[in-house]
């Protein structure tokens, strides 16, 4: 596991939040920290976390596969999360998503050919009044219709070109 | 009139029947005591309770008391204390009894709840009973008949999951049949201490899996097949071999070590198909080792001993050999810790008739104990040899005394009861110096060198008893008939005893009995500790004998399930 020193430090700190005989409880926070650092959970995560917490690897695999927001594969440089819950779906969340897919020539769940983005549907982002909403990494974008989706895509592409 | 319960007992009312049960009993076990079946899948009496199958739903209520005064509220209609029924069903496995607990297992609410649970369990179950090995002993099959609604309303597509995963060398998994009870996961973790199984994904996609790159390969893996309530986990060996309802069940004992795990041998038309554990809470709970389930394969092994000569001819040959070596001490007897108590008793009689009591030996087999159901002593019945008096001290692994006596030219004939002397420290030169009479089941160097070979039966083909490490006398019964050309050990030994005593005295003994009924009378007369017991009245779960005469002996066993050695085990060199 190739983790940054800061992550390793937070991992050791998080483990102390739980009683010594219930280190297992730290599984979920540890997985979050690893995913924040690496961007996904590489296959060796199970064994690494299990060793760290005195568990068996299967115990960690059970947790990773239970939660859909733990990724077992790498994603693009940015993660575009389009809301598909009722309010957004009613005012065109699906169309927004398709627009993003067209812009980046990719499909939901895959990395775009330029490696720039991964587009995913997510459940409610708690901004129903300004539907449809999109979360790009940690930034919330409201009222994202097809036009705004195109504009956001162009922005991302422009930033990519600068690099 | 109900007697006041003992302090550690709690009186509960199940379907109108009052019963006093120990504190901490759950509703399923309490109901079992009044012969009420509470259907369940995930609950297993020897595993932790998780309550995830929801099949054991019951309706329960507690006696009503006034919240302020704590005085019982009496129902004026009946004159009895009112019961506050909980309006929602509760799980029976996770509900422990409390004083005055009332349970209904047949109310409309319970019936509806069970039908609902059954319907959900069957949604993704393939219903391939006609080709499923579990059919006939399947809890899902039985309980959908007993408690299901009888027809399906499900018209959607069923889930597709892996159909034939090899979880390990002996276990095959059909994930579509799995109802996610997690018994196998808990067994692997809690009993076998090999936590490799788990559920991945969730909801209706949950799939039982072994961690990638690992295998369910421990020596207890087949117990997961036994406790699987459906046909998801199947034994790779038994899979598709035989319908279980055709098989005859015979109670037996696992002979691979001194634990003496209780087993059931499943056979049909003289052929054994599988061996499974039999519950004995004092010995093996409901488990047994995988290694013990393979032993029946030796029954039909190509190297099985058989003879075309009649047993009387062979015994006459042995008698001639005994007669030719009538100097006292010229004959040695090597008994076996694998023989039954009765056989060891007759071996002792044989040694006495041959003047060989001083040169009677037993071979010790020592391995590594696994702290569960295989002990360090790999003989099932060393205690039997002690109790019957065949030996007075613990056996050793190498027969150095016998070897020395052969070298000194004292011993001319060795009678071996199934022991290969080449394997216990006798050199080829020493073996060449003596004549052998060999009783046994399979070919080995000793049987090849023996002047007289008397083919006998394996543990699956005869009746008898073993005394395990707890000094528990346990019986095993004949599951299949022996092969032609092999004779019951007891008959062979009895004939040898008669032949040997004819050699010594002018008036031969009355024929030594070889049937268990009469033999036990003799056994009870000569071995006081076995006094009141007969083979017929011995309980199926065995009988603990008085071990006081032997406590000081340094037995090799370490701790195993339900067994703690009295004296610390001596260091064992394997």
Report on the architecture of this protein.
The complex is a heterodimer of chains A (163) and B (574). The longest helix of chain A is centred in the last third of the chain and has 17 residues, at 146-162. In chain A, strand 3 and strand 4 form a beta hairpin. Chain A has helices spanning 5-15, 27-38, 45-53, 57-66, 86-90, 93-104, 146-162; strands at residues 78-83, 117-122, 134-136, 139-141. In chain A, 47% of the residues lie in helices and 11% in strands. The mean pLDDT of chain A is 94. Chain A has two domains: 5-66, Arc Repressor Mutant, subunit A (Orthogonal Bundle); 78-162, 3-Layer(aba) Sandwich (Glutaredoxin), CATH 3.40.30.10. Chain A is built from seven helices and four strands. By secondary structure, chain B is of the alpha+beta class. Chain B folds into three domains: 9-106, Roll (Ubiquitin-like (UB roll)), CATH 3.10.20.740; 128-241, Alpha-Beta Plaits; 311-550, 3-Layer(aba) Sandwich (Rossmann fold), CATH 3.40.50. Helix content of chain B is 22%, strand content 17%. Chain B has 13 helices and 22 strands. In chain B, the strands form six sheets. In chain B, strands 1, 2, 3, 4, 5 and 6 form a six-stranded mixed β-sheet that branches. In chain B, strands 16-15-17-18-19 form a five-stranded parallel β-sheet. The A-B interface holds A 46, 56-59, 61-62, 65-66 and B 195-202, 209-212, 214.
């Amino acid at each position: 596991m190739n983790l940054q020193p800061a992550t390793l430090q937070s991992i050791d700190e998080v483990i102390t939040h739980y009683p010594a005989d219930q280190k297992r409880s730290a599984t979920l926070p540890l997985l979050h920290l690893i995913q924040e650092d690496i961007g996904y959970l590489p296959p060796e995560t199970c064994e690494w976390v299990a060793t760290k917490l005195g568990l068996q690897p299967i115990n960690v695999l059970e947790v990773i596969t239970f939660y859909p927001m733990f990724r077992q594969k790498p994603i693009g440089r940015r993660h575009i999360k389009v809301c598909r819950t009722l309010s957004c779906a009613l005012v065109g969340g699906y169309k927004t998503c398709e627009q993003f897919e067209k812009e980046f020539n990719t499909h939901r769940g895959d990395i775009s050919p330029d490696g720039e983005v991964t587009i995913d549907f997510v459940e409610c982002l708690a901004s129903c009044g300004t539907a449809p909403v999109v979360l790009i990494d940690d930034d919330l974008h409201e009222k994202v219709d097809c036009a705004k989706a195109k504009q956001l895509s162009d922005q991302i592409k422009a930033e990519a070109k600068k690099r | 009139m109900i007697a006041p319960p003992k302090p550690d007992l709690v009186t509960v009312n199940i379907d109108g029947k009052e019963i006093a049960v120990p504190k901490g009993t759950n509703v399923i076990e309490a109901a079992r005591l009044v012969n009420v079946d509470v259907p369940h899948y995930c609950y297993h009496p020897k595993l932790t309770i998780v309550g995830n199958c929801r099949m054991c739903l019951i309706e329960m209520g507690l006696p009503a008391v006034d919240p302020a005064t704590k005085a019982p509220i009496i129902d004026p209609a009946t004159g009895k204390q009112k019961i506050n029924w909980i309006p929602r069903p509760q799980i029976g496995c996770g509900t422990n009894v409390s004083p005055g607990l009332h349970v209904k297992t047949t109310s409309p609410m319970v019936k509806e709840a069970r039908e609902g649970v059954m319907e959900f369990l069957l949604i993704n179950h393939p219903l391939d009973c006609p080709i499923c090995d579990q059919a006939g002993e399947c809890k899902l099959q039985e309980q959908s008949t007993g408690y299901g609604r009888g027809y399906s309303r499900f018209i959607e597509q069923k889930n597709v999951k892996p159909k034939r995963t090899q979880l390990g060398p002996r276990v095959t998994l059909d994930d579509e049949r799995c109802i996610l009870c997690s018994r196998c996961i808990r067994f692997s973790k809690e009993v076998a201490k090999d936590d490799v199984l788990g559920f991945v994904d969730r909801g209706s996609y949950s799939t039982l899996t072994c961690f990638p790159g690992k295998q369910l390969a421990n020596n207890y893996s087949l117990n997961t097949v036994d406790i699987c309530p459906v046909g998801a986990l199947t034994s790779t060996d038994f899979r598709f071999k035989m319908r279980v309802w055709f098989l005859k069940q015979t109670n037996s004992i696992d002979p691979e070590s001194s634990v003496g795990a209780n087993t059931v041998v499943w056979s049909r038309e003289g052929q054994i198909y599988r061996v499974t554990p039999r519950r004995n809470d004092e010995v093996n709970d409901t488990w047994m080792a995988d290694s013990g389930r393979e032993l029946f394969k030796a029954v039909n092994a190509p190297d099985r001993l058989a003879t075309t000569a009649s047993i009387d001819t062979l015994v006459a040959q042995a008698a001639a050999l005994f007669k030719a070596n009538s100097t006292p001490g010229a004959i040695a007897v090597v008994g076996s810790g694998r023989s039954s108590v009765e056989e060891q008793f007759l071996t002792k009689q044989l040694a006495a008739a041959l003047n060989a009591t001083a040169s009677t030996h037993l071979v010790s087999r020592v391995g590594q104990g696994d702290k569960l159901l295989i002990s360090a002593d790999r003989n099932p019945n060393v205690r039997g040899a002690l109790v019957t008096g065949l030996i007075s001290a613990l056996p050793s692994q190498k027969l150095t005394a016998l070897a020395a006596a052969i070298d000194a030219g004292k011993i001319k004939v060795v009678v071996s009861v199934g022991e290969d002397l080449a394997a216990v420290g006798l050199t080829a030169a020493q073996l060449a110096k003596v004549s052998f009479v060999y009783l046994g089941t399979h070919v080995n160097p000793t049987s090849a060198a023996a002047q007289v070979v008397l083919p006998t039966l394996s543990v699956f083909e005869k009746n008898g008893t073993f005394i395990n490490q707890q000094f528990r006398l346990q019986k095993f019964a004949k599951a299949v008939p022996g092969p032609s050309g092999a004779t019951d050990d007891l008959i062979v030994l009895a004939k040898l005893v008669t032949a040997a005593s004819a050699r010594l005295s002018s008036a031969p003994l009355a024929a030594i009995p070889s049937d268990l009924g009469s033999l036990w009378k003799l056994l009870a007369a000569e071995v006081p500790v076995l006094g009141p017991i007969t083979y017929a009245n011995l309980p199926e779960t065995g009988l603990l004998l008085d071990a006081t005469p032997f406590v000081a002996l340094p037995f090799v066993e370490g701790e195993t399930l339900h067994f703690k050695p009295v004296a610390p085990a001596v260091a064992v060199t394997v």
